[in-house]
Every structure is written in structure tokens, then in C-alpha cells.
Amino acid sequence: MAAAAHVVFTAVVLAGCGATTATDSGAPTTTGSPAPASSAAEKAWHEVTTFVHHAGEDRRASPRFRLDGPARLRYTVTAQPANVDQLLRVADIMFIDERYDAESATVEEIIYIDTPGEGTKELGKRKGNYTIEVTAAGRDWKNTVITVVIEQEK
Fold first, then answer.
1. What predicted TM-score, i.e. pTM, was given to this entire model?
2. What is d(CA 115, CA 105) in angstroms, rounded to the nearest whole number?
3. If one looks up domain 44-153 in CATH, what number appears?
4. Residue 31's CB: how many other CB atoms inside 10 A?
5. Where are the domains of the chain?
6. For 22-58, what is each residue's pLDDT tens digit?
7. How many CB atoms lie within 10 A of CB 7?
8. Using one digit for the tens of pLDDT, what is the confidence trace for 82-105?
9. Coil, strand or helix: which one is 125?
């Protein structure tokens, strides 16, 4: 009798959590509402560096930063059209792997941005030193500001 009471109590507790329980026939049944998605499945990111470039500035590299693990690049571009008849690309962002030194650096990713807005580029697992170069590409845009944030998974 005590074993049967334990099984019923366990089934009631699990049913309240939306878990699968077994009936007397042994067939599984789901009761209650489904459990919410685990927050452990969501990735947590921390900012490694932020780089801001304004139209009219020469293309320049960000300060060097280090990555060791999954990373992503987020960007925000603001600009107003200067020539509404023909709008060419507004900005270019280059993600550069410095490898051992600046002379052997390799451009790993180039992001061409056609219109103002926001975006994210997954960079995958990275290990090493990197820089970013940003250019306000088009004469067809004015007051262009490009903000790039590099984040790494915690």
C-alpha cells in the first residue's frame, strides 16, 4: 500500500509540472500545460569591444581584441540619402584575423551593407587576435554612423 501511495504522489507532483506520467495500463499520458523553454538553452553574450565610425573619417582599424570561443558581430548603420535617384552601398565592415602580426592579417569576413539598419553576423568559434575596419562606402549617403559590437558567448 505504501508503494502505491508513493507512485500516486509522484504522478500528482509530475502532473502539476506538465510532465509525462504512466497510467495503470502503463501507457504514457501528458497532463498539465507544457513546461516553458529552458533559459539554459538561450545563449548569453558579453561585449568584447565596440567600434564607431563616422562618414568622412578615413578607413581605420579598431583596436586589437581577442576572442576565444563562439562570437558574433552586431552592427547598426544610420544614414540619410543624399542622392535619392541612385543609392549605392552605404557601408562595408571587414572582420580581420591578425593571426600572428598585422603583416600576415587575413580578411575573414566582409559585410556589405546596402541600406541603413541593424544586423548580426555569426562568426563561429574563434581563437586569436582580431580587428575591424569600417568604411562609409557611398557618396549617396550623408550623416552616416556605423556602430559595430563584437560579442562572445559566455
1. 0.68
2. 28
3. 2.60.120.380
4. 14
5. 2-37, 44-153
6. 444 444 444 444 444 544 467 899 999 999 999 888 7
7. 13
8. 877 777 889 999 999 987 666 666
9. strand
